[in-house]
Every structure is written in C-alpha cells, then in structure tokens.
Amino acid sequence: LVASPEIYNYLEEEISNLVGTEACVIFPTVTLISIGVLPAFVGKTGVLILDKSGHETMYEGAKIARDNGATLESFEKDDFSSLEEILKKHESNNRKVIMVDGVYSMTGDYANLPKLVKLAKKYKALIYIDDAHGFGVIGENPTNEFPLGKKGNGIVKYFGMEYDNIIYVGGCSKAYSSLAAFVACSKEMKTFIEAFATPYDLSGPCPIASLSTLLQGLNINKESGDNRRKKLFDLTSRAINGLRGLGYDVLNKTGFPIISVLIGDTEKLIKTANMLFDEGILVTVAPYPMVRKGEDVHRITITSANTEDEVDKLINAFSKVRVNKIDPLHQS
Questions:
Q1: Is the pTM of this model over 0.85?
Q2: Phi, psi of 112 (to 5 degrees)
Q3: Suppose 35 and one of 61, 114, 257, 309 were both cysteines; which one would form an S-S bond, judging by CB atoms 3.0 to 4.6 Å apart?
Q4: CATH topology for 6-206?
C-alpha cells in the first residue's frame, strides 16, 4: 500500500486555516505546481493570460499548456486596458486563467488584486496567484504599527479579499526555508488537482524533514511571527533609506524585504558585486539578459535574523563603492 504520512494531512489543514481556504494541496515546489496545475486548468482549449513580469515558472507551465493546444496571451504588469482587451477577445471561452505574482520577485511590488479581481469576475476568469515571496511575510490587517500585516497569510488576506475566483499558490522555501509549496483552494478544486495535475502523482514527495521544519516554522509564526515581521520591515526601511541617502536608485515602493539597487550596466554590476563581497556583503546579481538591458541590479534580501549593525555594514559597503567611483549609471 502507498500512503502519505500523517504530517501531510496535518500541514494541509494548518495552512488552509492560516490562509483562509477550504482546502490545500502540498507539492514539493512551486515549479511543479505551475507545470502541473496550469495545463490541467485550461486543457486543450482554454486560455492562459500571463503577466510578463510574473515568475518564469508560470511561463514554463504555460508553454506546456500551449503545446497541448491551449492559447497563451500576455500583458504588461498593471496594464489593465490590455488585459481587458484580451479578456474581451476570449470572452466566450469558459476556461480563462490570469497568471500573476502576488509579490514581484525583483522589486517587492504587490499585484493590484482589487483591479485584477474586478476584471476577472467581469469576464468569468480565474486568477492564479504565485505568492512564493509573499507567503509568510505579508498578511491580513496591515496598519502603521504592522505595515506588512499580521499572520503572514499572504497577498489575498493583505488586501482583505476572499478566494471566490482565486487559486492561491504559496511557497515555503522563502519565509519558512522548507522544501514545500501548496495550492490553497476549495475542496472540489483539491480533488481536481489531485486527479489531473501530473506532478502530484508522478513527482517525488516532500522529504519528511522539510515538512517537519515547515511545521516548526508555523509554530514559530503563531508565537512571534508578527513581531518578527515588524522587525523585518524596520530593517528593510533602514536599508532602503540608507542606500537612497547615498544616491542609489532603489526599486522598492512597498517596504517588502526585497531590495533591488539599480546599477544599469553588466560590467559595473559584476565589479561592484565583487567589491561588496570583499566587504563581507553577498548580493544576488541580476544582469542582462536576466533583466532588460540597462536594468541590471543588485538584489538584496533582508531577513528578521539580521541586525541593525549588519544593515549599517551593508550601507557602509555600498558607500565604499561610491567612494571608489564605481557609480551606478542611474541615480535618484
């Protein structure tokens, strides 16, 4: 006999309760969800509508669906006029799915869910939200005291919305540092996914060790998550203000702990990354063609385990880059 360990059932119930859905299906990764669930949703005749700024894994899943016969359309982030034109074009198709990030992985921007949901309901489309970065960080009832919200239950709850026409995908490798991901949905949709999303049957399961770390992470979230997120926001604001004070163009409008510093030139990007590393700072480089030409950035991720002294060290390292006259091409 083949069966899932009991921890699966327990975690799926815990996550469902946290995000506020009827049910939840755990997969090993968000990538497996995208390449399995998206083709299952639209079959051979449906329409997938991709936000061009969305994560590459959604595009990979959409290409599989397209190769099976589905239609793939795309629109620029926040271009709701173009999105509505596409929805009108396919108004008679009953299998339409709009694909967006909840929190965009390079800028920390939030998807404009209120506008997306309004359009999706008008044209009877589903919204597939990849909230790999948002889950565990942003959540319900944001206030001045808790700008990221509470509970870390994701972008939908951050906006105080329901899941009527939303398929919510969360990743656990970011905030929870665990090899797991999930689809939060209705019980009916869970049954559909288990039956028709190929990776659910044919890929390997999550290691029990990873599920155990996720379980402990959820316990920590209950005990001290909101205070950790408050600290996280404060540290992020300190970093953003410090970098902007040095003249750097920082691509962050939300205070989410993804900070992209615009350099604008691949050669300078690599050179400054090495200089920062020599100062004890490891940044993620995003050169062309990972991003558009002239939009090369250093991507910095702040965690609640960081300290004010470490953030000050980061700012000081970037100041030394400026002193050595290896300046970004674009300055604020």
A1: yes
A2: -80, 80
A3: 61
A4: Aspartate Aminotransferase; domain 2 (3.40.640)
